[in-house]
Each structure stands twice: as C-alpha cells, then as structure tokens.
Amino acid sequence: METPSIMRVGVLTSSRADYGIYKPLLKALQEDPEFELSIIAFGTHLSPFHGYTVDNIAADGYEVNYKVNSLLINDDKNAVSTACALTSLKFADFWEQHSTDFDLVFCLGDRFEMFGAVSAGIPYQVNFAHLHGGETTLGAIDNVYRHAITLASSLHFVSQEAFASRVAEITGKSDNIYVTGALSLDNLSNIQMLTKEEFKNKWGIDLDIPTVLVTVHPETVAPELNSRHLTEILESLRFVAKEYQVVITMPNADTNGNVFREGFNTLKIELENKLHLIENFGTQSYFTCMLYSKLLIGNTSSGIIEAASFKKYVINVGDRQKGRAAGENVLQVPFDSEMIISTLKQIKGLGEYKGQNPYFKDGAAQNIITILKEQNCDKL
C-alpha cells in the first residue's frame, strides 16, 4: 500500500468566535504527522478595537502563518459592505500568491469576512472545506453568506443530519457531506476549566455570586431596530441585576454593533460592580463562566450549541438565531423586557436542565481527521 502524502491544510479564522470552535481541530491537525497546518488570520483577530485576538492564537502554541488585514472600524451598512469587499480584494492577492500552497482550506460558518475570503478563492479553485453549513439564522444577513460559502466548498462537515440534507439541496450533490457533530463541543472534554478562584484572579469576577452570562449581537437583517432592541435589553438587565451579577461579553463586528457597545458601557456606569463587560474571554474562560452561571441571556450561537452540554437554560432573544435547531433548554422570546423577565422567573423554578444536546456527536475533530485521511488515500 502506498504511503499517504502529507496533506497541506490551511485554516481561515476571522474572529475569536470561529477560533474557539476550531481549537479541537487545530490541535488534532497539529499533532498528526500526516498534516501540515497553516493558520490564516484576518478580520477582528487583527483589530486592537476587538482585543487583537491573534495574540490568543500564538499564546495557545500555534503559529499564525499568514495575516490579512482588511477590517474597518465603523459598523454601518456601508462599512460592513466595504469591509467584505476589501477582504475579498486583499484575498485576491493572497490566493494569487498562495492558492497552490494548500491541498485543503477550512472555512467556518457565516461571517461576511469569511465570505469575502472564500469568494476571492473561487477563481483560483481553492479546495474549501466548510464547517457548520446547512444551518439557518433568519435574523442575520449571515444566513446568505453561509449558504454562499457552502456553494463555494467541495467538502462539508455539518453538525446534524438535517443540515446535511440542506447542504445537499443547496449544492445539488449528496457526496462529500459528513455529519460530524458540533466541533466546539470537543472543547468540553479537551479544555481544563478554571476554578472559581483562578477565574477571579484572572478577571476580577467572583463566580460564587449568582451570575447570568449575557451575549447580545445586533440583528443585521433589520439593523434599524437595534436601538429599540437595546432599550428592551437594558431594561431587562436592570431587573436581572437586582438578584444576579451580570457578565456581558461584547458583540462581534456587525452592522450597528456599536449601538449595543455604547449601551452596555452606559449601563456599566449605572450598575457599577453588578455588571462586568468582557471584550474577549477566550474559550477556557468563556466556558468556565458558562459552567458556573445560572443561565444565559442573548442571541449567540453558543446558547444554541454549547449551553445544553453545560445543563444551562437559555433565554434566546429575538430572531438572530431563528431557524436554527435548538434543544429544549432554549426558551425563545422577542426583544421585550417584560417577556424576558417573565421567562427568567420561569427558569428559576425549573432547576438544572436534564435533557440532551442535539449538536453533540462524540469526537467531532477526530471524525474529521479520519475523513480527511480517507480522502487523501483515495487520491493516491
């Protein structure tokens, strides 16, 4: 039998969010001698405004082989559109120089930056492998970007059977689609959580105090509603803070995302030590905070995908995640402070969530590695 050649794998990472999901796969690729890993960092990773999170990648022991700087500071519609176009322009030059350096390039999810990087690679016939395709988020323009990235990719690793069927519908093909589960859930067995004392020493937050973890992103399909949404969120958090410590992770770079940033900064002045604002927890600290929190409030994918594995209930607010499959731990409410508060009271009487996580499939990263090796052998 012929010995498989080393597969040269690139990984496109544009933010703290996708990097946290990638981590189990990066570890598996780095440790396996049959793969040569290259990390391509861009987007908010290179933005001081968002914490320059490319440093976190290096701190975790990975070499950042390429940096492509293309993000704008503004967050209005024109800035997002321009940043997407600028990312595509920068990656046109990148792929011109480096498209033949990779046998396969991983892309993840649905961000406009990721779309820009991938779309520029289409004329160069870059062999993209897409993670988390086939999902639906009707409250975000990301939904369009995700399906476009699916069409640009030749290999698909999805989290559920239903999403595999959706990818087949989008691409018109049923081959090269694999159900591997949600990659981020591998982190739960691979990452050593911080103790409460370690967390307090690192962040100045005492998790012995009953805590609610909050992450709210703008609804980019209807950004003109963000000011009203912010008003409802702030009113509900004022109520939450009467009984709980509130920890807010700040929103990503999205259309009109600064509306929420400014609102949370104002609320911090009002609530003082009852509220903590975090720009970038990193995976370990974020999951540690989730582990010790009483519940989650917001509209982030981590509430949909990871929270059930921590046995946490989630108040999922608004339409940003609308259409995405969720476990019974997720309670859906509109941006309405009275309904958010009512749902909070309901959760207090439920105790710990006892159900399953529909996104879990044991060993997602290793499942992907096995498939890549089989694909590599088939080419010999």
Automatic annotation (TrEMBL):
Superkingdom as given in the UniProt entry: Bacteria
Record organism: Pontibacter anaerobius
InterPro entries, per database record: UDP-GlcNAc_Epase, UDP_GlcNAc_Epimerase_2_dom, WecB-like
Positions of the UDP-N-acetylglucosamine 2-epimerase domain: 27-373
Record keywords: Glycosidase, Hydrolase
Name of the top EC class for this enzyme: hydrolase
Protein name according to UniProt: UDP-N-acetylglucosamine 2-epimerase
A GO term, aspect molecular function: hydrolase activity, acting on glycosyl bonds
Enzyme Commission designation: 3.2.1.183
PANTHER family registered for this protein in UniProt: UDP-N-ACETYLGLUCOSAMINE 2-EPIMERASE
Keyword RNA-binding: no
Alphabetized Pfam families for the sequence: Epimerase_2
